[in-house]
Amino acid sequence: MSRTRMQWLLVAGVVAALVGQVSMASAQSPDYLKAFPAAAEGMKRLVIQLPHKERGEDEGFRVELFAGKEMLTDGVNRVRLGGQLEAKPLKGWGFTYYEVAKFGPAMSTRIGVPPGTPQVKQFVAIPSITIPYNSRVPLVVYVPADGAVQYRIWTAGEQVQVAPEG
Fold first, then answer.
1. Rounded to an integer, what distance in angstroms lies between the CA atom of residue 58 and that of residue 134?
2. What is d(CA 83, CA 18) in angstroms, rounded to the nearest whole number?
3. 45/68 Cα distance (integer angstroms)
4. What's the chain's Rg over C-alpha atoms?
5. In whole angstroms, what is the distance from residue 132 CA to residue 63 CA?
6. How far is Cα 62 from Cα 29, in angstroms, rounded to an integer?
7. Mean pLDDT by 10 residues, the chain (166 residues)
8. Given this model, what pLDDT does residue 31 score?
9. CA-CA distance, 103 to 42, in Å (whole number)?
10. Element (H, E) at 130
C-alpha cells in the first residue's frame, strides 16, 4: 500500500472518529434541546438521557414513564391521579416528546385506616406508559409545575418462546 494511500486512510479514520464524537456530544448537550419547545407557563420540562446502547441493541429494552407528584397519603390505600401522559410529535424534527396537560383528581382504594395512622408523603402517579428505548435522543417530558417524572428501564430476556398451534 502506498504511503499516500495510508495517509489518506489515517486522515479519513480521524475525521470519522471526530464526527462520531461531535454527534454524540451534540445529542447530550443542552444545544440539542433547542429543538424542543420551552415549557409553557405553569409547566416544566424534564429531560431524561438514557444510558447509551448500540443500534440494534436497544430493541431489547423499553422505558416505562411515570408522571405524578408528591402527595400526603394515608399510607394504607393505593392512590392514583387522573390524567394522561400523551406522546406528541415535534414537527419538522421527527422526534417525540411527552406531555401531561394537567393532573386530575386523586382516586384511592377505600381500606379502613387505623386511628392515629400518620400520613405518608409519597409519589402518586397517573397511569404509566411504556415506550421504545432510544439512547440517541433524550426523553423530554412536560408536566405541571408541581409534577415530577420517574422512569423504569425494562429488559427483555434472552429466551424467546414459540407459540403452540391451537
1. 7
2. 44
3. 14
4. 23
5. 6
6. 23
7. 44 37 41 87 97 91 98 96 96 93 96 94 98 94 98 94 94
8. 72
9. 12
10. strand 129-132
Q: Which pLDDT score is estimated for 7?
A: 42
**What's the confidence (pLDDT) of residue 114?**
94
What 3-state DSSP class applies to 5? helix
Give me the sign of the Cα torsion angle 43, 49, 55, 58. Answer: negative
d(CA 141, CA 149): 8
C-alpha count within 13 angstroms, C-beta hemisphere, residue 101: 5
Taking the CA of residue 109 as centre, how many other CA atoms within 13 Å lie in the half-sphere pointing to its CB? 7
d(CA 103, CA 12): 53
**Amino acid in the structure at residue 26:** S
Helix (H) or strand (E) holding 37: none
Pairing of strands 139-144, 95-99: parallel
Distance of alpha carbon 166 from alpha carbon 160, whole angstroms: 19
DSSP state of 1: -
3-state secondary structure of 25: helix
**What pairs with residue 153 in β-bridges?**
63
101 burial type by CB count under 10 A (0-12 exposed, 13-18 middle, 19+ buried): middle
Please state the three-class secondary structure of 40-54 as a single string: CCCEEEEEECCCCCC
